[in-house]
Amino acid sequence: MSVLSINCGSSSLKYLLYDWDAQKVLASGLIDRIGLPDSNIVHKHNDQKIERKGKCADHRTAINLVLAFLQEAKVIHSLQDIEGVGHRIVHGGEKFSASARVDDAVLAEIKANGDLAPLHTPPNVVGIESARAVMPDTPQIVIFDTAFHQTMPEHAYSYALDYALAQKYKIRKYGFHGSSHRYVSERAAELLGGKNAWKLIIAHVGNGSSLSAVRGGKCVDTSMGLTPLAGVIMGTRTGDIDPAVVQVLADKLGEPLPQILNRLNKESGMLGVSGYSDQRDIIAGAENGDARCRLALQMQAYSIKKYIGAYLAVLDGADALIFTAGIGENSASFRQDVCADLGNLGIKLDLAKNKERGGERIISAPDSRVKVMVIPTNEEFIIARDVIEIVRGK
Question: Where does ATP bind (predicted)?
Fold first, then answer.
Protein backbone atom coordinates (compact mmCIF):
# COMPACT_ATOMS: atom_id res chain seq x y z
CA MET A 1 0.00 0.00 0.00
CA SER A 2 1.23 3.48 -0.84
CA VAL A 3 0.66 7.14 -0.01
CA LEU A 4 0.23 9.77 -2.73
CA SER A 5 1.55 13.21 -1.75
CA ILE A 6 0.16 16.17 -3.69
CA ASN A 7 1.41 19.75 -3.63
CA CYS A 8 -0.62 22.14 -5.79
CA GLY A 9 0.54 25.55 -6.94
CA SER A 10 -1.54 28.02 -8.91
CA SER A 11 -0.54 26.42 -12.23
CA SER A 12 1.36 23.34 -11.12
CA LEU A 13 1.03 20.00 -9.37
CA LYS A 14 3.94 18.14 -7.76
CA TYR A 15 3.38 14.56 -6.66
CA LEU A 16 5.25 11.75 -4.94
CA LEU A 17 4.13 8.16 -4.41
CA TYR A 18 5.63 6.61 -1.26
CA ASP A 19 5.54 2.97 -0.19
CA TRP A 20 5.26 3.36 3.56
CA ASP A 21 5.91 -0.24 4.57
CA ALA A 22 9.02 -0.46 2.37
CA GLN A 23 10.06 3.13 3.20
CA LYS A 24 10.64 3.78 -0.49
CA VAL A 25 9.75 6.42 -3.07
CA LEU A 26 8.01 4.67 -5.96
CA ALA A 27 7.48 7.59 -8.32
CA SER A 28 7.43 11.37 -8.44
CA GLY A 29 6.74 14.09 -10.92
CA LEU A 30 5.58 17.56 -11.85
CA ILE A 31 2.93 18.98 -14.12
CA ASP A 32 3.22 22.72 -14.68
CA ARG A 33 1.71 25.35 -16.97
CA ILE A 34 -1.69 23.89 -16.07
CA GLY A 35 -4.42 25.64 -18.03
CA LEU A 36 -2.14 26.45 -20.96
CA PRO A 37 -1.93 24.52 -24.24
CA ASP A 38 1.73 23.56 -23.74
CA SER A 39 1.73 22.02 -20.26
CA ASN A 40 4.94 20.30 -19.12
CA ILE A 41 4.46 16.79 -17.77
CA VAL A 42 7.37 15.04 -16.04
CA HIS A 43 7.26 11.60 -14.39
CA LYS A 44 10.16 9.86 -12.61
CA HIS A 45 10.08 6.14 -11.94
CA ASN A 46 12.77 3.44 -11.64
CA ASP A 47 15.56 5.97 -12.32
CA GLN A 48 13.83 6.94 -15.55
CA LYS A 49 12.57 10.41 -16.41
CA ILE A 50 9.65 10.69 -18.81
CA GLU A 51 8.86 14.14 -20.22
CA ARG A 52 5.85 15.04 -22.28
CA LYS A 53 4.16 18.14 -23.67
CA GLY A 54 0.42 18.41 -23.84
CA LYS A 55 -2.66 20.27 -22.74
CA CYS A 56 -3.68 19.97 -19.11
CA ALA A 57 -6.81 22.02 -18.63
CA ASP A 58 -7.07 22.05 -14.83
CA HIS A 59 -5.88 20.40 -11.62
CA ARG A 60 -8.48 17.64 -11.81
CA THR A 61 -7.11 16.72 -15.24
CA ALA A 62 -3.59 16.84 -13.79
CA ILE A 63 -4.50 14.36 -11.05
CA ASN A 64 -6.09 12.07 -13.64
CA LEU A 65 -2.89 12.25 -15.70
CA VAL A 66 -0.82 11.30 -12.66
CA LEU A 67 -3.06 8.37 -11.79
CA ALA A 68 -3.11 7.20 -15.41
CA PHE A 69 0.68 7.25 -15.58
CA LEU A 70 1.06 5.35 -12.31
CA GLN A 71 -1.20 2.60 -13.63
CA GLU A 72 0.27 2.55 -17.17
CA ALA A 73 3.78 2.26 -15.71
CA LYS A 74 2.50 -0.47 -13.37
CA VAL A 75 3.64 1.45 -10.30
CA ILE A 76 0.17 0.66 -8.98
CA HIS A 77 -2.37 -1.84 -10.27
CA SER A 78 -5.43 0.19 -9.32
CA LEU A 79 -6.50 3.17 -7.22
CA GLN A 80 -7.13 0.74 -4.35
CA ASP A 81 -3.34 0.48 -3.98
CA ILE A 82 -3.31 4.08 -2.72
CA GLU A 83 -4.10 3.99 0.99
CA GLY A 84 -4.40 7.75 1.37
CA VAL A 85 -3.59 11.09 -0.22
CA GLY A 86 -1.56 13.68 1.67
CA HIS A 87 -1.93 17.35 0.79
CA ARG A 88 0.70 19.84 1.90
CA ILE A 89 -1.19 22.97 3.00
CA VAL A 90 0.76 26.16 3.55
CA HIS A 91 -1.48 27.80 6.14
CA GLY A 92 -3.55 26.13 8.84
CA GLY A 93 -4.33 29.29 10.79
CA GLU A 94 -4.85 29.07 14.54
CA LYS A 95 -7.07 25.99 14.62
CA PHE A 96 -4.83 23.26 13.24
CA SER A 97 -1.94 22.09 15.41
CA ALA A 98 -1.75 18.69 13.72
CA SER A 99 -2.60 17.02 10.43
CA ALA A 100 -6.26 16.21 9.84
CA ARG A 101 -8.53 14.03 7.75
CA VAL A 102 -10.46 16.09 5.23
CA ASP A 103 -14.17 16.45 5.64
CA ASP A 104 -16.47 19.35 4.76
CA ALA A 105 -15.78 21.14 8.05
CA VAL A 106 -11.98 20.89 7.68
CA LEU A 107 -12.16 22.10 4.09
CA ALA A 108 -14.36 25.03 5.14
CA GLU A 109 -11.84 26.03 7.83
CA ILE A 110 -8.98 25.95 5.31
CA LYS A 111 -10.98 28.20 3.00
CA ALA A 112 -11.75 30.54 5.91
CA ASN A 113 -7.99 31.01 6.42
CA GLY A 114 -7.54 31.92 2.77
CA ASP A 115 -6.84 35.59 3.45
CA LEU A 116 -3.80 34.59 5.54
CA ALA A 117 -2.16 32.96 2.50
CA PRO A 118 -3.96 34.34 -0.56
CA LEU A 119 -1.33 33.09 -3.01
CA HIS A 120 -1.18 29.54 -1.66
CA THR A 121 -4.58 28.61 -0.23
CA PRO A 122 -6.66 28.71 -3.45
CA PRO A 123 -4.47 26.17 -5.32
CA ASN A 124 -4.21 24.07 -2.14
CA VAL A 125 -8.02 23.94 -2.00
CA VAL A 126 -8.23 23.10 -5.71
CA GLY A 127 -5.90 20.18 -5.12
CA ILE A 128 -8.03 18.82 -2.28
CA GLU A 129 -11.30 19.23 -4.16
CA SER A 130 -9.88 17.71 -7.34
CA ALA A 131 -8.48 14.67 -5.50
CA ARG A 132 -11.76 14.14 -3.65
CA ALA A 133 -13.62 14.22 -6.96
CA VAL A 134 -11.27 11.80 -8.70
CA MET A 135 -10.78 9.47 -5.70
CA PRO A 136 -13.96 9.82 -3.62
CA ASP A 137 -13.32 6.61 -1.64
CA THR A 138 -9.69 7.37 -0.77
CA PRO A 139 -8.97 9.20 2.52
CA GLN A 140 -7.60 12.71 2.01
CA ILE A 141 -5.27 14.06 4.71
CA VAL A 142 -4.02 17.64 5.09
CA ILE A 143 -0.57 18.38 6.50
CA PHE A 144 -0.03 21.99 7.52
CA ASP A 145 3.25 23.93 7.22
CA THR A 146 2.16 25.96 10.25
CA ALA A 147 1.16 23.13 12.59
CA PHE A 148 4.54 22.39 14.20
CA HIS A 149 4.87 26.02 15.31
CA GLN A 150 1.54 26.12 17.14
CA THR A 151 3.35 25.32 20.41
CA MET A 152 4.91 28.80 20.50
CA PRO A 153 3.92 30.76 23.63
CA GLU A 154 1.70 33.80 23.17
CA HIS A 155 4.49 36.27 23.91
CA ALA A 156 6.53 34.73 21.07
CA TYR A 157 3.82 34.63 18.40
CA SER A 158 2.07 37.93 19.18
CA TYR A 159 2.68 41.21 17.37
CA ALA A 160 2.57 44.50 19.29
CA LEU A 161 -0.49 45.76 17.45
CA ASP A 162 -3.84 46.91 18.78
CA TYR A 163 -4.76 43.73 20.64
CA ALA A 164 -8.41 43.70 19.55
CA LEU A 165 -7.50 44.13 15.88
CA ALA A 166 -4.85 41.41 16.05
CA GLN A 167 -7.35 39.02 17.64
CA LYS A 168 -10.14 39.87 15.21
CA TYR A 169 -8.08 39.39 12.08
CA LYS A 170 -5.79 36.59 13.39
CA ILE A 171 -2.69 38.71 12.87
CA ARG A 172 0.18 36.87 14.56
CA LYS A 173 3.29 34.85 13.82
CA TYR A 174 2.50 31.40 12.40
CA GLY A 175 5.76 30.09 10.96
CA PHE A 176 6.25 27.74 8.03
CA HIS A 177 8.40 24.78 6.84
CA GLY A 178 6.84 22.96 9.79
CA SER A 179 7.18 19.45 8.36
CA SER A 180 10.90 20.02 7.82
CA HIS A 181 11.52 21.46 11.29
CA ARG A 182 9.51 18.62 12.82
CA TYR A 183 11.43 15.91 10.96
CA VAL A 184 14.83 17.42 11.74
CA SER A 185 14.04 17.91 15.43
CA GLU A 186 12.98 14.26 15.74
CA ARG A 187 16.08 12.97 13.93
CA ALA A 188 18.35 15.19 16.01
CA ALA A 189 16.86 13.83 19.22
CA GLU A 190 17.51 10.27 18.02
CA LEU A 191 21.07 11.04 16.93
CA LEU A 192 21.87 12.87 20.15
CA GLY A 193 20.73 10.06 22.36
CA GLY A 194 17.11 9.18 21.94
CA LYS A 195 15.62 11.52 24.49
CA ASN A 196 13.48 14.47 23.46
CA ALA A 197 14.64 17.05 25.99
CA TRP A 198 17.25 18.68 23.78
CA LYS A 199 17.51 22.39 23.03
CA LEU A 200 17.90 22.78 19.27
CA ILE A 201 18.32 25.58 16.76
CA ILE A 202 17.28 24.43 13.29
CA ALA A 203 18.30 26.38 10.19
CA HIS A 204 16.23 25.33 7.16
CA VAL A 205 17.99 27.24 4.39
CA GLY A 206 17.03 26.90 0.76
CA ASN A 207 15.46 29.33 -1.66
CA GLY A 208 12.99 29.87 1.17
CA SER A 209 14.56 29.86 4.63
CA SER A 210 13.46 29.76 8.25
CA LEU A 211 14.96 29.07 11.66
CA SER A 212 13.29 27.59 14.71
CA ALA A 213 14.11 27.28 18.39
CA VAL A 214 12.99 23.88 19.70
CA ARG A 215 12.93 22.75 23.32
CA GLY A 216 11.93 19.20 24.20
CA GLY A 217 10.57 18.54 20.71
CA LYS A 218 8.32 21.62 20.71
CA CYS A 219 8.81 24.85 18.81
CA VAL A 220 9.15 27.90 21.06
CA ASP A 221 9.97 30.42 18.33
CA THR A 222 10.48 30.63 14.57
CA SER A 223 11.68 33.28 12.14
CA MET A 224 8.86 33.41 9.58
CA GLY A 225 5.77 35.32 10.60
CA LEU A 226 2.21 35.92 9.46
CA THR A 227 3.51 34.99 6.01
CA PRO A 228 6.72 33.36 4.70
CA LEU A 229 8.07 36.84 3.86
CA ALA A 230 9.40 37.52 7.36
CA GLY A 231 12.64 36.33 8.93
CA VAL A 232 16.06 35.84 7.35
CA ILE A 233 17.13 36.91 3.87
CA MET A 234 16.04 34.35 1.27
CA GLY A 235 16.51 33.63 -2.42
CA THR A 236 13.93 36.16 -3.59
CA ARG A 237 12.33 37.38 -0.32
CA THR A 238 13.52 40.34 1.73
CA GLY A 239 13.15 38.78 5.16
CA ASP A 240 12.68 41.30 8.00
CA ILE A 241 12.48 44.95 6.90
CA ASP A 242 11.08 48.19 8.29
CA PRO A 243 7.36 48.15 7.32
CA ALA A 244 7.68 51.79 6.24
CA VAL A 245 9.74 50.59 3.25
CA VAL A 246 6.46 49.45 1.71
CA GLN A 247 5.03 52.97 1.90
CA VAL A 248 8.22 54.52 0.51
CA LEU A 249 8.26 52.15 -2.47
CA ALA A 250 4.55 52.69 -3.14
CA ASP A 251 5.03 56.48 -3.10
CA LYS A 252 8.18 56.52 -5.21
CA LEU A 253 7.12 53.94 -7.78
CA GLY A 254 3.40 54.71 -7.88
CA GLU A 255 2.62 51.01 -7.67
CA PRO A 256 -0.32 49.38 -5.82
CA LEU A 257 0.26 47.32 -2.69
CA PRO A 258 -0.02 43.88 -4.41
CA GLN A 259 2.73 44.87 -6.85
CA ILE A 260 4.98 46.09 -4.02
CA LEU A 261 4.43 42.83 -2.11
CA ASN A 262 5.28 40.90 -5.27
CA ARG A 263 8.58 42.82 -5.39
CA LEU A 264 9.32 41.93 -1.77
CA ASN A 265 8.46 38.25 -2.31
CA LYS A 266 9.84 37.55 -5.77
CA GLU A 267 12.34 40.25 -6.75
CA SER A 268 14.27 40.89 -3.54
CA GLY A 269 16.49 38.91 -1.17
CA MET A 270 19.65 37.41 -2.68
CA LEU A 271 18.25 38.04 -6.16
CA GLY A 272 17.65 41.71 -5.48
CA VAL A 273 21.11 42.31 -4.06
CA SER A 274 23.23 40.16 -6.37
CA GLY A 275 21.14 39.63 -9.49
CA TYR A 276 21.07 35.87 -8.82
CA SER A 277 18.82 33.69 -6.68
CA ASP A 278 20.81 30.45 -7.01
CA GLN A 279 23.48 30.11 -4.32
CA ARG A 280 25.91 28.47 -6.74
CA ASP A 281 25.78 31.45 -9.10
CA ILE A 282 26.24 33.88 -6.21
CA ILE A 283 29.25 31.99 -4.82
CA ALA A 284 30.81 31.81 -8.30
CA GLY A 285 30.24 35.52 -8.76
CA ALA A 286 31.82 36.33 -5.40
CA GLU A 287 34.85 34.17 -6.26
CA ASN A 288 35.20 36.11 -9.51
CA GLY A 289 35.24 39.44 -7.68
CA ASP A 290 31.58 40.49 -8.01
CA ALA A 291 31.09 42.93 -5.12
CA ARG A 292 27.30 42.56 -5.06
CA CYS A 293 27.56 38.78 -4.85
CA ARG A 294 29.99 39.13 -1.94
CA LEU A 295 27.62 41.58 -0.28
CA ALA A 296 24.65 39.22 -0.72
CA LEU A 297 26.54 36.36 0.92
CA GLN A 298 27.63 38.59 3.79
CA MET A 299 24.08 39.85 4.32
CA GLN A 300 22.65 36.33 4.26
CA ALA A 301 25.16 34.97 6.79
CA TYR A 302 24.72 38.02 9.03
CA SER A 303 20.94 37.70 8.92
CA ILE A 304 21.04 34.04 9.96
CA LYS A 305 23.79 34.61 12.54
CA LYS A 306 21.59 37.18 14.33
CA TYR A 307 18.72 34.68 14.62
CA ILE A 308 21.08 32.04 15.98
CA GLY A 309 22.22 34.48 18.64
CA ALA A 310 18.62 35.36 19.49
CA TYR A 311 17.62 31.71 19.81
CA LEU A 312 20.62 30.94 22.01
CA ALA A 313 19.18 33.57 24.33
CA VAL A 314 15.62 32.26 24.03
CA LEU A 315 16.73 28.69 24.85
CA ASP A 316 19.36 29.71 27.43
CA GLY A 317 21.96 27.91 25.36
CA ALA A 318 21.58 25.08 22.88
CA ASP A 319 22.66 21.47 22.57
CA ALA A 320 22.84 21.56 18.78
CA LEU A 321 22.69 23.85 15.77
CA ILE A 322 21.37 21.93 12.77
CA PHE A 323 21.58 22.88 9.09
CA THR A 324 19.08 21.43 6.64
CA ALA A 325 17.44 21.98 3.19
CA GLY A 326 19.26 22.70 -0.07
CA ILE A 327 21.79 25.35 0.94
CA GLY A 328 22.03 24.25 4.55
CA GLU A 329 22.82 20.67 3.55
CA ASN A 330 25.06 21.30 0.56
CA SER A 331 27.03 24.54 0.96
CA ALA A 332 30.10 24.22 3.18
CA SER A 333 31.06 27.84 2.55
CA PHE A 334 27.63 29.02 3.68
CA ARG A 335 27.85 27.05 6.94
CA GLN A 336 31.36 28.37 7.55
CA ASP A 337 30.24 31.97 6.99
CA VAL A 338 27.31 31.57 9.39
CA CYS A 339 29.36 29.94 12.15
CA ALA A 340 32.34 32.30 11.90
CA ASP A 341 33.00 34.33 15.08
CA LEU A 342 30.50 32.36 17.18
CA GLY A 343 33.18 30.65 19.25
CA ASN A 344 32.41 32.66 22.38
CA LEU A 345 28.81 31.44 22.09
CA GLY A 346 30.02 27.84 22.02
CA ILE A 347 29.79 27.19 18.27
CA LYS A 348 32.96 25.98 16.54
CA LEU A 349 33.16 24.16 13.22
CA ASP A 350 35.62 21.45 12.30
CA LEU A 351 36.55 22.88 8.88
CA ALA A 352 37.55 19.49 7.45
CA LYS A 353 34.33 17.80 8.57
CA ASN A 354 32.32 20.75 7.29
CA LYS A 355 33.64 20.10 3.77
CA GLU A 356 32.56 16.46 3.80
CA ARG A 357 29.41 15.70 1.83
CA GLY A 358 26.40 13.47 2.23
CA GLY A 359 24.14 12.18 4.95
CA GLU A 360 23.59 12.97 8.60
CA ARG A 361 26.76 14.09 10.34
CA ILE A 362 28.33 16.18 13.08
CA ILE A 363 30.60 18.91 11.71
CA SER A 364 31.56 20.75 14.91
CA ALA A 365 34.99 20.77 16.51
CA PRO A 366 35.56 18.47 19.51
CA ASP A 367 35.66 21.44 21.89
CA SER A 368 32.48 23.05 20.56
CA ARG A 369 29.94 23.35 23.41
CA VAL A 370 27.14 23.33 20.85
CA LYS A 371 27.15 20.42 18.42
CA VAL A 372 26.84 21.57 14.82
CA MET A 373 25.05 19.03 12.63
CA VAL A 374 23.82 18.49 9.09
CA ILE A 375 20.57 16.54 8.82
CA PRO A 376 18.98 16.21 5.35
CA THR A 377 15.31 17.02 5.65
CA ASN A 378 12.56 14.61 4.59
CA GLU A 379 9.19 16.33 4.46
CA GLU A 380 7.76 13.51 2.34
CA PHE A 381 8.39 11.10 5.21
CA ILE A 382 6.40 13.31 7.59
CA ILE A 383 3.53 13.61 5.11
CA ALA A 384 3.43 9.85 4.49
CA ARG A 385 3.68 9.03 8.20
CA ASP A 386 0.84 11.39 9.11
CA VAL A 387 -1.35 9.92 6.38
CA ILE A 388 -0.66 6.37 7.58
CA GLU A 389 -1.21 7.21 11.25
CA ILE A 390 -4.55 8.89 10.55
CA VAL A 391 -5.79 6.32 8.03
CA ARG A 392 -4.72 3.30 10.09
CA GLY A 393 -5.65 4.90 13.39
CA LYS A 394 -2.19 4.52 14.91
Answer: 14, 204-208, 278-280, 326-330
CATH number, domain 194-379, options 1.20.1250.20, 2.30.39.10, 3.30.420.40, 2.40.160.10: 3.30.420.40
**Is the separation of the CB atoms in 127 and 6 below 8 Å?**
yes
**Which segments are annotated as binding site?**
7, 14, 88, 204-208, 278-280, 326-330, 379
Sign of the torsion angle spanned by Cα atoms 124, 130, 132, 134: negative
d(CA 268, CA 279): 14
By the 8 A CB rule, do 285 and 273 touch? no
Binding residues for substrate: 88
Half-sphere exposure of 191 (CA within 13 A, CB side): 21
* Marked catalytic residue, from 145, 221, 319, 386: 145
Per-10-residue mean pLDDT of the chain, 394 residues long, equals: 86 89 90 85 89 86 89 90 92 92 94 82 88 91 95 98 96 94 95 86 94 97 95 95 96 95 93 93 95 97 98 97 95 96 96 94 97 94 93 84
- Binding-site positions for Mg(2+) read 7, 379
Q: Where are the domains of the chain?
A: 2-144, 194-379
Round to whole Å and give the CA distance between 216 and 189: 9
- Asked if CATH classification 3.40.50.300 holds for the domain at 2-144, the reply, yes or no, is no
